[in-house]
Amino acid sequence: MSFEDISVKEFMDRLASDEPAPGGGSASAIAGAMGSCLMGMVSNLTIGREKFREYEEHMKTALDNSTRLREELIQAADRDAEAFNRVIAAMKLPKGTEEEKRIRTQMLQEALKGAALKPFDVALLCIEVLKLAWDLHDKGNPNALSDVGVGAHLAYAGMQGAIMNVEINLPMIKDPEFVDELKEKVEKAKTEGNRVYRHIIANVKF
Known about the structure:
The protein is an all-alpha fold. It has one domain: Formiminotetrahydrofolate cyclodeaminase monomer, up-and-down helical bundle (Four Helix Bundle (Hemerythrin (Met), subunit A), Up-down Bundle), CATH 1.20.120.680. About 75% of the residues lie in helices and about 0% in strands. The chain is built from six helices and no strands. It has helices spanning about 10-15, 25-45, 55-90, 100-135, 145-165, 175-205. Helix 2 runs antiparallel to helix 3, helix 3 packs antiparallel against helix 4 (about 100-135) and helix 4 (about 100-135) packs parallel to helix 6. The longest helix is centred in the middle third of the chain and has 40 residues, at about 100-135.
């Protein structure tokens, strides 16, 4: 069942249970999705106000982007849980013979790569939410400035959490080229996300 189809309470109950998924990766995606919801709220509170007429079309675009990011992050939460479940399934494969060991190792390595890539996608989406917050902090309705800040905090937490879920899988992956390439991408994402987050927080003042 998709996280799109369950209530907030059901999601939290599943997150708190002894099921291996959803876990931190899905929670990070949902944090980012909540951040994007707040960007949508700020856009809606700006659209149609006479004093913000000069930003009307800009806000409509921001609203569209916030909706897209929210939907993509909810879907990413599902994909992250599915990726981790594939790791668990691969670990449970038989390993009594050399052939079984070979198949298990191959399947596990493929699953681990997926379990690293899916949260990286979440991190990139969260950075998009942060960039949207940057855009809204000086163009959106100032009465909702705190919501921009809260949304940025949520998106940043989502980014950081997602990156942690990338990094925990890397030591188990035996493809050095894959690992090095993903590490490089992660460092670039961290630098970009940190830069945008610091700018927002420095400028969300009352």
